[in-house]
Amino acid sequence: MSRPLTGGAATPAAREHARDVLAASTDQLENVRTAAGRWQTGLAGLSGTIAIFGLVKGADDVDALSSGWAIAYGICLAGALACAIGGGVVAMRSAFGLPRVMSTSMVAPARRADAEEARRSARLLHAAIWMTVASIALVAATLAVAWYAPGDPASSLRVHRTPGTEDCGKVVAVSNGVLVLDTDTGERKIALRDVDGISAADSCSDGP
Amino acid sequence: MRPSAIISRMAADCQPYDEVSSDELGERAAREMSYRFEPADEPEDVVITGPCPRCQGSMTYTWPMLVVRQTVAREAQDALEITVICRCRAEHRGADREAGCGAYWTLWVPRPA
Questions:
Q1: Best interface-test mutation with B: which of A3, A31, A112 has the largest number of B CBs within 10 A?
Q2: Of A7, A14, A97, the CB nearest to B29
Q3: pLDDT tens digits for range A34-44
Q4: For A92, which of A42, A108, A196, B23 could close a Cys bridge (C-beta 3.0–4.6 Å)?
Q5: Strand order, beta sheet including A156-161
Q6: Do the chains contact at B36 and A2, CB–CB below 8 Å?
Q7: Among candidates A74, A107, A16, A86, which has minimal Cα distance to B66?
Q8: What is the tens place of the pLDDT at every residue in A95-131?
Q9: Which chain A residue's Cα is nearest to B44?
Q10: CA distances from A5 to A15, A107, B44 (A)
Q11: Is the CB of A113 inside 8 Å of chain B's CB atoms?
Q12: How many other β-carbons are positioned within 10 Å of the β-carbon of residue A73?
């Protein structure tokens, strides 16, 4: 046993703070479990909401988009998901609080703690609302991209002919043993019997 | 009942319940009361024992060093500042279900190493 360093008077506010700390140490297990139960329910609901994002559009449909629009689609969907998760977590933090273990000497007096927590919860509630609105807007943008963005343009073909020459362009038609190719210099008709090989080309401007 | 307990109880009975605090009470408590950390190796509580500086009733006061609260904090101090409220078991007139004589004071104890 040791003697304290010193002693002195205490204020009525300090007395109330001490009573609050002693009460909190008695009730803390029940309080944490109550908060944990609310967080569990909220997180389960949030997980269910996130599953809905999988229904926005399948991966097969995304393949049909041109690369630029596919990137925009991905950014919008990822942003919507992030905003939905962030908004949900922040809303739960605002509603349920977030208990944590702290040194008793760092616990603010109950009245001040309540006031600070109220201000913080109000700020978080506003943030949660805006994040949810942003999430909805991004989901709408994702759907708009998925539904209305132009698809991937038809790929070009590079046609190798038996004399060793080649033509590059988009296929217009194939009929009666003749391949009609739309090239940079105009349509070209190529007899299929002269074709030695065909390969896909992203662009006709580059060499083979 | 042991004589010391009888004396302690008689002393306590002389004091009606009153929520008072003063430097004199705190200084007297610092001279007469003792503290220990429990458990000693990884302290979770400060246990303060000794006579109440007002009513002289013997008391044990357990102050938690850790508590689960919301994320609101204030600056930590170099020494532990503990507000002690009399928790003697003697009955005091006008206590109305409150433990102790109503006196309270502040003790500063060094943080555990």
A1: A3
A2: A7
A3: 888 999 999 99
A4: A42
A5: A186-191, A178-183, A166-175, A156-161, A195-201
A6: yes
A7: A107
A8: 888 887 877 776 766 666 677 788 888 999 999 999 9
A9: A103
A10: 20, 22, 19
A11: yes
A12: 22
